[in-house]
């Protein structure tokens, strides 16, 4: 028993403000019989300090039990009304956001029953490998606004994960094992320090519909990205992109593309950007782009185009200042004009062979018309040309060299 105190009682945690559980303790004195609050910066007896050190884990598990209990009540209520919900399969939603957690203890609860876990707005510096590996049925994982420098490799065990939000951390790369999350549909990794994305992200995560990686340090996007035929939104603004991948036409469902504010780094757009037949919004503002590809005149579904802050030469400023339709018409006319340009008739390459005496013909006195028509009184037989004596006679250098080069001795 502590001196001068009758008992020490922990406050009951407030569901809406669970951090109150840590911030104060309640004690009852002998004389006044009043509740007195001792804050965490007060010197406490050793037994109270021990209680306080365990409070984080207790709070973590107790909050999870509270959430699960509430979901159980809602599930029973919804089942009585004949309605369906995500919890009918026994899966739960756990919200531990905004609790100032510095670390995650290993809870004794069954994490396999969680379908959505919200750990956002805490002070987490790491996610335990063992904890991530036990989230076998998690569909939504929100760990934004923490202090994470890397993600656990065991994130690859989350085969049912569809939505992952890791924004607002200090991540420099995403683990290669993320390619095993083949059910992933939304990847949000804004406001980190990413310099690259996994090379095979487009080959493995074929169900991705949204990628948002703005406000990072990306220099390029992986070429495999063009294989994401289900992708609808790609947000890569505020990076250091030098170029975009070729073969963008494979992104047949892409509706929104934002590569703005790469400033002096992004200087051109690939021709294939005009082949994005589903594109509705395109933002390439505040880059170093001087010319828009003529193919953009074919973007029939495009409704919003932002090219502000670029030193554009084509289309000229007076066209850009009009409207989107004027830009599309200008580019379309420019493209059609290029296709209508006169095409020079190609000369027969076989005729060149005869002209330069590739067949060692003696047509010096013949007219050009005769040579082009292959009137050859004398020529070497195919068998002779194929013999070892004439090996290499069809090399590129010899084919288009003067006749004297071929004369055999």
Note down, in words, how this protein is organized.
The protein has 409 residues and is of the alpha/beta class. It is 22% helix and 12% strand. The protein contains eleven helices and 13 strands. The strands form two sheets. The chain has a ten-stranded parallel beta sheet with strand order 4-5-6-7-8-9-10-11-12-13. β5, α4 and β6 form a beta-alpha-beta unit. It is elongated. The protein starts with a strand and ends in a 10-residue tail after the last helix. The relative contact order is 0.04. Mean pLDDT is 75; it is low at 1-53, 73-88, 359-366, 368-377 and 379-383.
Largest sheet: 10 strands, parallel
Helix content: 10-25%
Give the ordered list of helices and strands: EHEEHHEEHEEEHEEEEEHHHHHH
Rg calc: 35 Å
Global structural class:
alpha/beta
What is the compact description of this entry?
This protein is an alpha/beta fold and 409 residues long.
Chart the SSEs and their pairings.
Elements (H helix, E strand, L loop, with lengths): L4 E5 L10 H4 E6 L5 E5 L6 H8 L1 H26 L11 E4 L18 E5 L10 H5 L6 E3 L20 E3 L20 E3 L12 H4 L5 E3 L20 E3 L20 E3 L22 E3 L20 E3 L10 H4 L3 H16 L9 H7 L12 H5 L9 H5 L9 H4 L10
Parallel strand pairs: 4-5, 5-6, 6-7, 7-8, 8-9, 9-10, 10-11, 11-12, 12-13
Antiparallel strand pairs: 1-2, 2-3
């Amino acid at each position: 028993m502590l001196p001068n105190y009758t008992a020490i009682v922990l406050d009951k945690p407030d569901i809406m403000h669970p951090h109150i559980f840590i911030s104060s303790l309640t004690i009852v004195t002998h004389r006044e019989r009043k509740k007195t609050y001792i804050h965490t910066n007060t010197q406490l007896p050793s037994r109270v300090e021990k209680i306080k050190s365990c409070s984080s884990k207790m709070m973590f598990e107790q909050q999870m039990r509270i959430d699960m209990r509430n979901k159980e009540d809602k599930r029973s209520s919804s089942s009585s009304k004949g309605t369906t919900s995500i919890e009918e399969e026994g899966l739960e939603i756990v919200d531990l956001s905004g609790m100032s957690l510095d670390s995650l203890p290993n809870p004794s609860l069954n994490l396999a029953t969680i379908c959505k876990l919200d750990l956002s707005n805490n002070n987490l510096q790491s996610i335990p490998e063992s904890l991530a590996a036990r989230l076998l049925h998690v569909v939504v994982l929100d760990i934004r606004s923490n202090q994470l420098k890397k993600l656990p490799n065991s994130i690859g065990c989350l085969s049912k994960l569809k939505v992952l939000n890791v924004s607002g951390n200090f991540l420099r790369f995403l683990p290669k094992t993320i390619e095993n999350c083949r059910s992933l549909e939304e990847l949000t990794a804004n406001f980190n320090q990413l310099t690259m994305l996994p090379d095979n992200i487009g080959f493995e995560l074929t169900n991705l519909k949204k990628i948002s990686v703005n406000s990072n340090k990306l220099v390029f996007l992986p070429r495999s990205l063009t294989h994401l035929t289900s992708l609808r939104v790609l947000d890569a603004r505020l990076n250091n992109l030098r170029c975009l991948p070729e073969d963008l036409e494979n992104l047949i469902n892409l509706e929104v593309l934002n590569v703005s504010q790469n400033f002096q780094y992004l200087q051109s757009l690939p021709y294939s950007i005009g082949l994005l037949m589903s594109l509705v919004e395109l933002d390439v503002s505040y880059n170093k782009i001087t010319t828009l590809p003529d193919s953009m005149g074919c973007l029939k579904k495009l409704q919003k185009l932002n090219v502000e802050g670029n030193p554009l030469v084509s289309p000229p400023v007076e066209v850009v200042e009009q409207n989107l339709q004027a830009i599309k018409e200008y580019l379309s006319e420019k493209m059609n004009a290029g296709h209508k340009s006169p095409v020079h008739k190609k000369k027969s390459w076989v005729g060149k062979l005869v002209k330069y005496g590739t067949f060692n013909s003696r047509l010096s006195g013949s007219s050009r018309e005769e040579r082009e028509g292959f009137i050859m009184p004398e020529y070497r037989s195919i068998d002779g040309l194929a013999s070892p004596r004439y090996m290499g006679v069809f090399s590129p250098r010899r084919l288009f060299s003067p006749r004297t080069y071929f004369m055999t001795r």
